[in-house]
Amino acid sequence: MAVSPRPRRSAYPELRAVAARRRRDPSLPRWPFRRPEELARELGTDLERGLASAEAVARLALFGPNELARRRRVSPIPILVEQLTDFMVLVLLAAALLSLALGEVADAAAILAIVFLNATLGFIQEYRAERALERLRELTAPAARVLRDGGREKVVPARELVPGDVVLLEAGDRVPADLRLVEAHALRVQEAALTGESAPVDKVPDGPTGEPASLADLQTALFAGTEVTSGRGRGVVVATGMETEFGKVAGLIQEAGSDETPLQKRLAELGRYLVLACLVISGVVVWAGLLRGEPIGEMFLTGVSLAVAAIPEGLPAVVTVLLALGVQRMIGKNVIVRRLPAVETLGCATVVCTDKTGTLTLSEMTVRRLWTPLGTYEVTGQGYDVRGDILPLHEPQARGTTRGPALLEADPALGLLLLGGVLCSDARLVERGRLEVHGDPTEGALLIAALKAGLARDPLDHRHPRLAETPFSPERRRMTTVHAWGEGPALDGKAPSRGRSGSAGVGPASAMLFCKGAPDTVVGLASHFQGRGGPLPLTPDDRHRILAAADELAAQGLRVLAVAYRPLPRPPSGPVEELERSLVLAGLAGLVDPPRPEAKHALEVCRRAGVRVSMVTGDHPATALAVAAELRLLDPGAPPEGQVLTGRELDLIPERVLRRRAADIRVYARVSPAQKLKIVRALKAAGEVVAMTGDGVNDAPALREADIGVAMGRTGTAVTKEASDMVLVDDNFASIVSALEEGRVIYDNIRRSVRYLLACNTGEILTMLLAALCRLPLPLLPLQILWVNLATDGLPAMALGFQRPEADVARRPPRPPGESIFARRLGVKILGRGLLIGLSTLAVFLAGLRVAGDLALARTLAFATLVLSQLIHAFDCRSETRALTEVPLSSNWHLVVGTAISLGMLLAAVYVPELRSVFRTVPLGPAGWAAVITASGWGQVAVGLRRMYLSRYLTRFRRRR
């Protein structure tokens, strides 16, 4: 392992002192004016080999993580303090002090114990939620590619970068720290976030000339937080964390505060209204008790207890925990949710606009056909496996003898086609047990095809080093590179062929330009095509023949690329774009990316769920249609031609027309990232809730505009991931469908918890209010009310978040985005069940008074009935459509355990002597429990009979129709 040179003894203190001065000094930094080699010596690093891992660890401990100052990480102490300083808790503490002053030591101790238990449960809920959100932030932290341990390329978390690290960058990356540029190839960076410059700026490794006026003029510097829009480069880290230029303005980009979702906000607002209503009701109960002659101290405690028990102060925390639990389940399904509001929106999605390559397909491109003006060839093999051959397609007699390298002599255009595919490429093949492609999968497929003909990249790169390049962009739809050439191409990686044309029909040239891209673009730049003896003029008939061959390949479901070349008498001195003319067409490559096996089933799930799926791709329309047909993405009731729209047509069509047609379009082909934004806006204007996938830096605006932006975890750029609401770890469309289902499940579970908590609180309020209005004694004592709140609210409500999804969750239509949490008669169910619980509790209380004439016994019966009624209702909340007996216990064992614990707390309050004296209960015999079970269960029986009657009525009604 190569060991990085240690910096001189004073390097660390000097660097830290310089960084500290730079934070105080608003003037321009001086390091962009220094030579990279000089900085490397001071930083103790090697610009070609990077740092050793051990050295990087030591520097990380010294300089700290590469991140801006942000709010402190979750700590248990502030959460616990927040629980103990809640308004209702403070009221309870005041009640405990009052009880102590009145000599009621047992009551005061019981109140304090209940406050402590409530605070503990609230703390556990809040802490779990905060830790879950913190883990999500860590999962979505950016990464960086660095050179470590002798020049090996590694991907490390950006927060672990240290001064002296050598960072590799390409289009779509976010610059992870302040870098002095060492090497650049057509590198352009968007610095608007730092400098305010709207257009990307060119970056070069040469030192600046003149006196720069601002950061925007420092062409040798890359600043943390800016975005690489095109090209690639390499730089050495000179500053990290708060010592970067962004660190000077860290206050402007501090981490966002709360992750509160719209649902949580609506519930918090609901809670405020409930607080007001409960305080009024508590006041009525206290006033009625005082009129009846009850002691003022006891009535004060009763009012406080009733308010605390009735107000669902734990509801926002329960919702947060349920959201976090659901998000954790999504991580297990390869979906990382970056913003919690996306969880709610998932259940509303009506349209998913998905990329094709890598999402609906495997992203293991394979060259299937090679076409040259001299012949058509079949390429055998699958994926990134070099086993396979290149065989003449229309000459069966030659298939056994003329294959692979032998074909390059017979067809010089084939050799140039493969050679251009290798040299005009940024992809690399890496051996890790099996060949893996680092870079674009399409370019990787071209490298594999060339290997099948005996052309390896490394010797070709050594023989023909790259001199200049213009990278691929969606607007240009092509990539161009220029290479040193000499006397001719080394097609076998050895010495170049001699002769008038060389082995590929190319004469002597100082440099060679290769262009690879969309057939219509490359053919439009060509003036010749490669013949057997050399370039021949390209006539209109030839041009038509070549484009017809491209269309024929595309109609077979293949992605088609064209490769052309141009000999240059000398290396270029100006922009490469000026040389992209008078090209010689070498041929076409047809590639296939097979659909994912699980994609077809996922699309069927979307159809059943009422979610429309549209493919948005840059591929040829025929290729996209072929894949869409194979996946059954097209509507069988409409002609395929009417379900596809090309990027060119998209530019011409008015937005109002697009809004009208959007519902019928299943395939958008030849679409640029800029046009994705137009698609999203048209769909949203048509009333759709849109999920949009993307991976490139130019996809970020469309992802921000969409209701749910979905970034690719493997191929997605850092900028795209930061603009997204969700990240697919495996780039798989099936994971989107899993997320849609999970989003619906989470929302259903939240509704279950809301239904349970509010129905229980309503029952408690009505019990006390009706008793007060009827001038009855208090059915429940203050401590009993608090114990009910503790025993029945938290555990069952949380356990409902683990309920298994109902069978129809993936078949229901999307939820309207503006739908209230109380929609679909949930509010009626809450009030109805609360009324049943209140009446049952009051009825058993009256029965105890009338039959036994014992107030303590009557209160114990009411206490037990209220708890048991609520616990039975928890099981009824497992489904909104099925009866309690229709849902098996195995659907939620968490609820079974939580209910058992709550029931144990009730029995302890009734039978443990020490607790009986505190809660003033009496032991219940068989007759008492029979009354409690009857009063608790009759409401459930009534609900079941009502459901049975409605079910039969609806069945008869349907039969009549």
Descriptive overview:
The chain is α+β, with helices and mostly antiparallel strands and 961 residues long. It is elongated and about 115 Å long. It has 33 helices and 27 strands. It folds into four domains: 11-70 and 141-252, Calcium-transporting ATPase, cytoplasmic transduction domain A (Distorted Sandwich), CATH 2.70.150.10; 263-329 and 747-960, Calcium-transporting ATPase, transmembrane domain; 335-360 and 596-731, HAD superfamily/HAD-like (Rossmann fold); 366-592, Calcium-transporting ATPase, cytoplasmic domain N (3-Layer(aba) Sandwich). Helix 4 runs antiparallel to helix 6 (105-139), helix 9 (262-291) runs parallel beside helix 26 and helix 27 packs parallel to helix 30 (855-876).
Keywords:
alpha+beta; Calcium-transporting ATPase, cytoplasmic transduction domain A; Rossmann fold; 4 domains; 10-stranded mixed β-sheet
Total of helices: 33
User: What is the average of the pLDDT values?
Assistant: 79
Q: Rough shape? A: elongated
> Low-confidence parts lasting 5 or more residues at pLDDT below 50?
1-12, 21-26, 250-259, 396-402, 489-505
N/C terminus separation: 81 Å
Structural class: alpha+beta
What summary fits the major beta sheet? 10 strands, mixed
CATH class of the largest domain: Mainly Alpha
- Tally of DSSP β-strands: 27
CATH homologous superfamily designation of the largest domain: Calcium-transporting ATPase, transmembrane domain
Which second-level CATH architecture of the largest domain applies? Up-down Bundle
Percentage of residues assigned to helices:
40-55%
Q: Strand-residue fraction? A: 15-25%
CATH topology of the largest domain, by name, is Calcium-transporting ATPase, transmembrane domain
Question: How many separate domains?
Answer: 4
